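Researcher: Quick test of sequence recovery. Tokens follow.
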């Protein structure tokens, strides 16, 4: 089924319209803080810095327009989730450090909503639950293990398991065996959120320049195609686009994710599907999906398409390939069979940043004055807020609970050169898909060993 519209950044911008472009950097400039990237991370950093010290001269540089990247293309999951390898953070922060980070992450949902309300940002925010569904016995085993894991690391008050009956009462997915429920999350329209945040930082006095490509960065100096910005602090907030900066091609791998959106569905269809709680929904397949019920009654479905392009190259304006679209439509029809008779209105894709150990980091090198944050591995809507608050504290040299979290100034090794990283990522996803096929066979009750082998290929 071919979508009505493919690419053009994302459905979220088709919903609200592409923004008018802000002017480019007019020439050489000076600032106290120069931020590269006007996505969630860069904008949150600017906002919190201005709240802490309104006198700061802050410049944000953006190659395209604010929210062009993952901030305007993601699945709209504001989860406060801790989706990474807890044990790796425990190596630097111990058990107490990891629990502190879990608590800090859990608080991001309330914090984002607080700021949105204070700044008058209408982003279709709706408080709800996260519902991760198992549709076969092997997935149910993995689900139970995940619930136990997350409760062990400090989420016992917000994560629990429900059975088939309660799952189907919430959402009519064929074959549902059980579900993991995560409370205190929210659904958002991501492009509305990033657009509102950009307007809020401008009202606070931040200078935001679009259409400005950074060509090099050095301590105290950012070079662009429109001039040089000199600043005592420079923050690199480029997430999945980091590989495009000089010397950083192997730091964070740009992993591709894609989505589709249906046309608005009529009330009788929603009566069949359920989903009255507007939960953000995923499944426990190894090659997982993520879905939401939008403001106007569409279903969006996301997942991995072509997961990685050779040489850390990027997509063309958010246009996924035909095979990726076919796979996402198959997931939609498998989980929501009644949607087969309705059109796919839009398909799009984008990149997210993946460190070699799949663990996000934030930090600031006081010797060079250069800071960074990213590598969110697909949970950036909430994590970027915590990163922005943390970067503000680091730049201002404030010793706080946030600057003591175990992801701060955590170093990871770079990815392997090509073709090894291409082979590794594509090999991982081939094995994850094979594991899902094996687990779907009748009589299979245990997770496939193929998934473990696939994850070990890339340290996932």
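Model:
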């Amino acid at each position: 089924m071919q979508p009505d519209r493919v690419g053009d950044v994302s459905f979220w911008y088709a919903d609200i319209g592409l923004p008018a472009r802000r002017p480019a950097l007019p020439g050489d400039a000076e600032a106290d803080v120069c931020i590269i990237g006007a996505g969630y991370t860069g904008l949150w950093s600017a906002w919190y810095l201005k709240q802490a010290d309104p006198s700061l001269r802050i410049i944000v540089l953006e190659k395209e327009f604010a929210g062009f990247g993952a901030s305007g293309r993601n699945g709209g999951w504001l989860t406060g989730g801790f989706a990474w390898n807890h044990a790796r953070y425990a190596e630097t922060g111990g058990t107490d450090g990891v629990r502190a980070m879990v608590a800090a992450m859990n608080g991001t949902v309330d914090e984002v909503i607080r700021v949105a309300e204070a700044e008058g940002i209408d982003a279709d925010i709706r408080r709800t639950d996260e519902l991760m569904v198992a549709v076969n016995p092997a997935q149910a085993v993995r689900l139970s293990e995940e619930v136990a894991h997350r409760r062990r690391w400090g989420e016992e008050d917000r994560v629990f398991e429900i059975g088939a009956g309660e799952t189907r009462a919430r959402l009519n997915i064929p074959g549902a065996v059980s579900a993991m429920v995560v409370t205190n999350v929210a659904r958002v329209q991501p492009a509305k959120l990033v657009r509102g945040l950009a307007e809020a930082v401008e009202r606070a006095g931040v200078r935001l320049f679009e259409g400005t490509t950074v060509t090099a960065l050095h301590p105290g100096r950012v070079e662009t195609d429109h001039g040089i910005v000199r600043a005592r602090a420079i923050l690199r907030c480029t997430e999945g686009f980091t590989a495009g900066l000089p010397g950083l091609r192997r730091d964070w791998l740009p992993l591709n994710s894609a989505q589709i959106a249906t046309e608005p569905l009529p009330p009788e269809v929603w009566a069949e599907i359920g989903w009255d709680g507007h939960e953000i929904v995923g499944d426990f397949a190894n090659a997982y999906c993520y879905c939401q019920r939008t403001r106007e009654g569409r279903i969006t479905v996301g997942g991995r398409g072509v997961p990685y392009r050779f040489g850390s190259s990027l997509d063309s304006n958010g246009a996924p390939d035909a095979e990726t679209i076919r796979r996402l439509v198959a997931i939609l029809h498998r989980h929501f069979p009644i949607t087969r008779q309705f059109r796919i209105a839009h398909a799009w894709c984008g990149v997210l940043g993946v460190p070699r150990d799949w663990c996000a980091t934030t930090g600031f090198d006081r010797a060079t004055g250069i800071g960074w944050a990213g590598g969110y591995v697909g949970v950036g809507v909430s994590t970027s807020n915590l990163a922005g608050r943390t970067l503000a504290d680091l730049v201002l040299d404030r010793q706080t609970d946030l600057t003591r979290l175990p992801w701060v100034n955590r170093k990871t090794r770079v990815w392997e050169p090509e073709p090894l990283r291409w082979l590794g990522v594509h090999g991982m996803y081939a094995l994850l898909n094979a594991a899902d096929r094996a687990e779907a066979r009748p009589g299979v009750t245990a997770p496939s060993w193929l998934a473990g082998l696939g994850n070990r290929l890339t340290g996932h």
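The longest strand covers residues 344-354.
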